[in-house]
Specification:
The chain is built from four helices and no strands. It is mainly alpha-helical and 106 residues long. It is elongated and about 65 Å long. Helix 1 runs antiparallel to helix 2 and helix 2 packs antiparallel against helix 4.
Length: 106
């Protein structure tokens, strides 16, 4: 569909870039690498902001129900991802605090 359009836009590859970036973060997130996990959260947050700033208002303005539904699903899944990322950060912090308390280090 991209190459079949009359005027393909290079901006269509922006979501692909974010997806590749998130896929590259997966091994680091699984290893519980804090820096990579924070990069993944930052990318996810940028995706959420990007979805809410341009495509959602445009779809609402066009009164395009299918586009709005697609965007709502994407926004909901992005919010769920952020929720679980933040929850995992809190769980790790609590586990470290409990381990430090058990070992006598405060």
């Amino acid at each position: 569909a991209y190459y079949g359009s009359e005027a393909p836009s290079k901006t269509a590859f922006i979501p692909v870039g974010f997806g590749v970036g998130l896929l590259l973060c997966v091994p680091g997130v699984k290893r519980e690498d804090q820096i990579i996990a924070h990069v993944a959260v930052l990318l996810t947050l940028l995706i959420l902001v990007a979805l809410c700033v341009k495509p959602l208002p445009a779809a609402l303005e066009r009164d395009d129900g299918m586009a709005v539904m697609r965007l709502v699903v994407m926004i909901a899944s992005t919010l769920a991802s952020l929720f679980f990322f933040i929850k995992s950060f809190i769980d790790v912090r609590r586990a470290r605090a409990a381990a430090a308390k058990d070992s006598g280090v405060v």
